[in-house]
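Sequence of Hydroxymethylglutaryl-CoA synthase (Paucilactobacillus suebicus DSM 5007 = KCTC 3549).
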Amino acid sequence: MQIGIDKIGFYTPSLYLDLVDLAHARNEEPDKYLIGIGQEKQAVIPATQDIVTMGASAADQILTEEDKKDISTVIVATESGVDNSKAAAIYVKQLLGLDNFVRTVELKEACYSGTAAIQFARGLVNLNDKEKVLVITADIARYGIGTPGEVTQGGGAIAMLISVNPRVLAIENQSVSYTDDIMDFWRPLYRSEALVDGKYSTNVYIDFFNKCWNRYSEITDRSFDDFSALIFHLPFTKMGKKALDSVMEKEPENIANHFGTQLKFSQQLSRQVGNLYTGSLYMSFLSLLQFNSELVAGNRIGLFSYGSGAEGEFYSGILQNEYGDVIDFENIETMLNNRTKVSVADYETIFNSQIGYTSTDVVLDTSNDKSKYVLSGQKDQQRQYFVRK
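Predicted 3D structure, token representation.
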């Protein structure tokens, strides 16, 4: 029985920051960001959007009323939780109008938990093949204004429907996970911005990829010849290149060039949006499918998931022949092209306007947010959401 991704949708808000403008404002050469980091634009998240509204928007793009009847579980994977107790999945379930006889849960392990959610979802579907599981990866990457990590901020959500007979990617059973207690990136409960040792984190990422790939290759007896593409979690696009280069050093030039080309396809959306944390790997997957017109059904794709702290996993999937009909690539292109550019000053104002950690009532100006799902503020220490009709 094949189980995997039957549908996949993507959402990011309607504002962006041009990183050339940011470079000038920070007295940096633009190529440090455009080439050295590999980013061009960065999603700017208004105060009226959070992981709940973005996750609901991503899911809304892919769900039919029939799908909603078949969903048994909603899993939200995030490291940008809005409550230390209540799962964001409950809010999402309510906004989407799902039945109350639905299981809801939130998962956390830095950027990795989206992959854990997919694996858990596969297990649930295996128990009852008539059910579908909605997996949402939603995050807002925040490091702080003027920090070294500022250029790798971003945000958005990916929604995936996991079912039998998937039309996008059939996930193969063998995978390899690797975990070690490492402080390369963390965010204490009292902070909305992450703390990170960037160079150390990059080295850990590369090391974990090598460990996972080598173990996977030993167990499956597969080599690079068995794959059409390798895709990576991309907190910034250059990170994936560093990992790929580490295993391509001893490979023939034609093999290295092939996988390098596939990597470039998978980087395109990341360059325009920035870091999605839990959703970054799956945005890479969407990007690969959108920009590589030569992929065909039966191609095997390798996926490397990583979350600081740290955990990595390498697994694989087989591309299905209906993926081009299921994924709305035109909608993704339109959404990105129709975004509004903001100045660095406006970006800084928006960055500092988030609700954050406060017990006071907050009323947000929602007049400029035309999204279907909107955060309108906080009342009696409870977040207030509404669905725009």
